[in-house]
């Protein structure tokens, strides 16, 4: 799919002299190795936050939602803010997977796995809030349209909140399937590389018996494309419907038609900020700098610039139309002069500074490619996008249509604790993921290695675009199995023992004198007076060249070969260094034993 | 090298002449006085007199509702209210009503010309944006199409000048806020006069015109310079230029939509509106790129463009048809759901008076492109893409028609000589200018850093 020609002007996406094997090793390392100290430290902190949040949730459910800072005017605040914040973060994953796949962006391959994981974990956090907010979460199934006798309000199909239930559950399931599909070949890679039988079993199950046949790959690519096509409208629909929650129902009589596309852009904006936050750490901790390069970070910063630009435009349009409409109530909305100068001025300006002004620095190429600065900006955007949702809800609600009910919102420790808890939960999941999943879609990265790998780019720069990329492997005739014995490239004629190659085929006696003696002491010597020499070429893996070498060492019979053990194999490898390990691999001793008995 | 075939040239000149004649006819036959209007109305009544008498009563009761009372208190002028509630001709006092109809009938040739003029301008402008996006995103598939896009954007200069002249001289035909009398009695319009005033309006239009055309001029210049250059400097310049143009465009596109379309009904507002106009513009533009590509390919002039490139263009047609529908639905759904009187008038007049066009447009712009272009293989079959393209272009012409007509001529709309003539004239001009533009240089962009990637491109 992506193995076609790539313009030399493009920067490499895989750094260093990587081979296919290196990719497997590098990606498999965090899973097959042991966790280091810093992982345990971060994991412990996340776990504590998670448990703290869990405590707050239990307290909320057992006591009632009164423990939150809500009041009559502001009937939802942190809960819905956090919900939308998490759902928004959950957006970038499927965007990277689906939309960038459709746009054939090769750089997605290094980041899509983690972004998709982030999506799923973020949606899990998001889903918590509506469930807790129900007060009686054991009745959560009430949001589903099940036949009932409660009348027309149950389930209320007119409410965008209900549409949310469908949108998000659909999104979660498709994202999960998409994620898992991409994981299949990579799970299989881990399965094949691990030495632990337990891991082999688990990853064997997880990979659904992936065999790596052409048919598997063909189906894999087809399914990926179909799922990408399905997921793209879903990406749009989820946040569109989340935006409807506010566009239709925050304050009666107020709405804004730009919300659907503006929320989608904002979600991608915040999602990419979170991907940056996670990947900048992960590339360092898991030693993946060769795959998640500065270029990847720059590309993601460009997406942040684009979506941030769209969000900025939407803010300006909102602000302008609020004035243009001539409706006095618009001055109470979150993007208006009234908001900028009102009691929530700090929330307004937090939004403007975090989402509009700070990301502007990314227009500078140096800053865009600066990892530390990118990390800081990503954190600031995450904060800014939280404020965006907070502003929409709390600022709008704080000045509703009835002046006597105007009020402010004060969060309690439970509000804060629950939010912190979800952040902890998110990181617990992500850290576990980083230790058990192949965090880079290595199978896909391998497909772009030749077009976008640094070493191959250098190769083309030196030798021209049409240079062959075939990595020459030392020919090993026995790989061809029995057919290696057919007269072809391996040998011209079975009678022509003394061709040029074999004549020059000399073992260095002086250097190896000791080893040869050692070897022969193990397997016995050949006495031409009493014994007849065997045709050693009958041993699979021994060609005319190898036979000549063995003759030079004094090995002429199957009997001698059949006495070879690991010690002799190693000695042989040291003397004849061309094909290390081959004798052992082909089990010459075993073959020779059979041949000897036949004679 | 492409040269506009003499037959096509002749054809374009003929339809231009015909169109010009028709437009002139439209302006000359527009009623001059109230007497003319009375005559026309009497004629109409003769055709279907009976029903009107019955309807008249019902309508009067409908329009005099609490919303209108509230509007009056909120600062709408009498005249503005009449305009806003003018859904049926029978709802108002006869003298002012006939005056109103006269105004709308006089506006009709203006609107007819503007719809066609803007439709073809937005194609050229949309192509320019698509072109800028290709540069800014360093796209690898599309450089083979650069000369084709540049050929289409040749139309930008004449097209934008004509549209500029129309919006500047249309005056109160299009823009009620330019009517000083009306503004004097309308508190809300007075509040908007900081933005909606004639000098600022013209200055803005000049800025759009300059910005778009300057980008078109310099990007074309750099693109041609790249063909003779031995380094990538012109390409790099174009990259930067394109990024800045896109920033300029995202702002000016919004203000342009407010200025030229939204301010036709100055009390109505919708934050999504500018992007909705953009979606229409963009999908039409990509469709025209596909059409021109198919045409040039059929003449064997662009062997380096493969069916994969067509496939990608068709994907964009498909995707942006859905995108347009998405924005259409978002705007419609939210306004319908909220049912706020100020906002919902926009859709009421369109559904009551333009029902067939309003819903037919959805079939043309959404259902057909989806059905025709859904299958992957069909996106590579030229005649299939052409069919989808015709649906899309007709659909988006209707879309522009629905942006302008209900806001300017209200229920007094027809699809007659002025509309057809304007369409013919601008189509002829478009074919002539674009055909000439395509013929100026070789259709193969040389030396672009991505051209080889684009030519060797397969998936």
TrEMBL record, chain B:
The keyword Cell inner membrane does not apply. The chain crosses the membrane at residues 10-28, 110-133, 154-175, 195-215, 241-261, 273-296, 316-336, 356-374, 381-405, 417-438. Keywords: Membrane, Transmembrane, Transmembrane helix. The keyword Transmembrane applies. This is Quinol:cytochrome C oxidoreductase. It comes from Aequorivita aquimaris. The lineage of its organism: Bacteria, Pseudomonadati, Bacteroidota, Flavobacteriia, Flavobacteriales.
């Amino acid at each position: 799919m992506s193995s076609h020609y790539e313009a030399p002007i493009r920067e490499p996406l895989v750094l260093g002299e990587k081979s296919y094997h290196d990719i497997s090793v590098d990606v498999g390392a965090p899973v097959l190795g042991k966790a280091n100290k810093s992982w345990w430290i971060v994991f412990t902190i996340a776990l504590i936050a998670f448990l703290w949040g869990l405590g707050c949730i239990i307290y909320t459910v057992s006591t009632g939602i009164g423990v939150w800072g809500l009041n009559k005017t502001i009937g939802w605040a942190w809960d819905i803010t956090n919900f939308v914040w998490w759902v928004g973060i959950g957006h970038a994953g499927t965007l990277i997977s689906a939309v960038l796949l459709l746009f054939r962006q090769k750089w997605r391959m290094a980041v899509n796995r983690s972004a998709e994981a982030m999506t799923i974990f973020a949606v899990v956090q998001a889903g918590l809030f509506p469930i807790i907010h129900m007060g009686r979460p054991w009745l959560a199934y009430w949001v589903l349209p099940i036949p009932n006798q409660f009348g027309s309000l149950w389930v209320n199909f007119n409410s965008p909140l209900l549409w949310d239930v469908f949108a998000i559950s659909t999104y979660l399931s498709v994202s999960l399937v998409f994620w898992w599909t991409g994981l299949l070949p990579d799970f299989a890679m881990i399965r094949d590389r691990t030495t632990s039988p337990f891991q082999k079993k688990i990853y064997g199950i997880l990979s659904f018996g992936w065999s790596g046949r052409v048919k598997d790959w063909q189906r894999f690519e087809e399914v990926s494309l179909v799922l990408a096509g399905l997921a793209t409208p879903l990406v749009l629909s989820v946040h569109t419907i989340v935006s409807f929650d506010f566009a239709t129902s925050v304050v009666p009589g107020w709405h804004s038609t730009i919300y659907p596309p503006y929320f989608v852009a904002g979600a991608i904006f915040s999602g990419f900020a979170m991907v940056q936050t996670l990947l900048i750490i992960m590339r360092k901790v898991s030693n993946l700098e060769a795959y998640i390069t500065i270029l990847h970070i720059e590309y993601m910063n460009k997406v942040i610039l684009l979506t941030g630009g769209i969000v900025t435009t939407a803010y300006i349009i909102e602000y302008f139309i609020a004035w243009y409409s001539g409706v006095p109530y618009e001055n109470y909305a979150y993007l208006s002069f009234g908001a900028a100068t009102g009691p929530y001025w700090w929330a307004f300006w937090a939004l403007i500074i975090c989402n509009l002004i700070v990301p502007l620095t990314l227009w500078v190429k140096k800053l865009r490619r600066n990892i530390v600065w990118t990390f800081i900006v990503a954190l600031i955007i995450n904060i800014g996008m939280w404020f965006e949702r907070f502003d929409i809800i709390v600022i709008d609600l704080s000045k509703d249509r009835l002046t006597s009910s105007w009020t402010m919102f004060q969060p309690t420790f439970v509000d804060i604790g629950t939010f912190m808890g979800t952040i902890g939960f998110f990181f617990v999941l992500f850290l576990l993921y980083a230790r058990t999943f192949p965090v880079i879609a290595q199978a896909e990265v391998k497909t772009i290695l030749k077009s976008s790998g640094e070493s191959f780019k250098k190769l083309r720069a030196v030798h021209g675009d049409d240079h062959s990329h075939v990595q020459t492997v030392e020919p090993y005739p026995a790989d061809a199995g029995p057919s290696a014995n057919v007269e072809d490239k391996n040998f011209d004629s079975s009678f022509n023992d003394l061709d040029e190659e074999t004549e020059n085929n000399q073992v260095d006696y002086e250097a190896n004198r000791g080893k040869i003696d050692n070897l022969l002491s193990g397997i016995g010597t050949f006495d031409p007076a009493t014994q007849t020499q065997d045709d050693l070429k009958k041993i699979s893996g021994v060609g005319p060249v190898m036979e000549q070498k063995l003759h030079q060492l004094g090995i002429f019979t199957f009997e001698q070969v059949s006495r070879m053990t690991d010690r002799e194999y190693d000695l042989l490898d040291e003397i004849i260094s061309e094909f290390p390990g081959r004798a052992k691999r082909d089990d010459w001793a075993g073959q020779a034993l059979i041949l000897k008995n036949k004679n | 090298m492409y040269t506009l075939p003499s037959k096509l040239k002749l054809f374009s000149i003929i339809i231009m002449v015909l169109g010009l004649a028709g437009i002139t006819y439209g302006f000359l036959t527009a009623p001059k006085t109230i007497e003319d209007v009375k005559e026309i109305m009497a004629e109409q009544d003769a055709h279907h007199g009976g029903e009107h008498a019955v309807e008249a009563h019902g309508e009067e009761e409908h329009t005099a509702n609490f919303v209108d009372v509230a509007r009056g208190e909120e600062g709408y002028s009498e005249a503005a209210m009449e305009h806003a509630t003018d859904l049926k001709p029978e709802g108002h006092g006869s003298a002012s009503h006939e005056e109103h109809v006269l105004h709308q009938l006089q506006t009709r040739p203006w609107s007819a010309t503007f719809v066609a003029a803007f439709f073809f301008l937005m194609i050229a402008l949309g192509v320019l944006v698509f072109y800028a996006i290709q540069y800014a995103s360093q796209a690898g598939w599309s450089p083979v199409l650069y000369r084709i896009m540049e050929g289409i954007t040749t139309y930008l200069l004449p097209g934008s000048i004509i549209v500029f002249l129309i919006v500047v001289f249309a005056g109160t035909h299009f823009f009620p806020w330019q009517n000083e009398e009306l503004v004097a009695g309308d508190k809300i319009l007075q509040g908007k006069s900081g933005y909606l005033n004639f000098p600022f309006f013209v200055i803005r239009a000049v800025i759009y015109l300059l910005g778009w055309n300057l980008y078109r001029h310099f990007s074309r210049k750099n693109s041609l310079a790249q063909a003779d250059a031995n380094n990538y400097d012109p390409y790099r310049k174009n990259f930067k230029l394109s990024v800045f143009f896109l920033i300029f465009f995202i702002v000016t596109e919004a203000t342009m939509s407010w200025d030229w379309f939204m301010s036709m009904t100055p009390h109505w507002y919708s934050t999504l509106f500018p992007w909705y106009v953009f979606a229409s513009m963009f999908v039409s533009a990509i469709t025209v790129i596909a059409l021109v590509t198919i045409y040039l390919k059929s003449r064997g002039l662009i062997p380096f463009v493969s069916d994969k490139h067509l496939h990608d263009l068709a994907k964009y047609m498909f995707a942006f048809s859905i995108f347009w529908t998405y924005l259409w639905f978002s705007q419609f759904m939210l306004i319908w759901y909220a049912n706020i009187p100020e906002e919902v008038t926009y859709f009421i007049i369109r559904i009551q008076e333009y029902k067939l066009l309003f819903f037919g447009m959805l079939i043309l712009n959404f259902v057909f492109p989806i059905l025709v272009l859904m299958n992957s293989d069909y996106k590579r079959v030229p005649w299939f893409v052409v069919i989808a393209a015709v649906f899309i272009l007709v659909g988006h012409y209707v879309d522009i028609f629905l942006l302008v007509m209900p806001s300017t001529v209200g229920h007094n709309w027809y699809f007659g000589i002025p509309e057809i003539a304007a369409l013919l004239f601008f189509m002829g001009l478009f074919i002539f200018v674009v055909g000439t533009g395509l013929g100026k240089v070789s259709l193969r962009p040389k030396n672009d850093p991505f051209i080889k990637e684009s030519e060797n491109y397969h998936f």
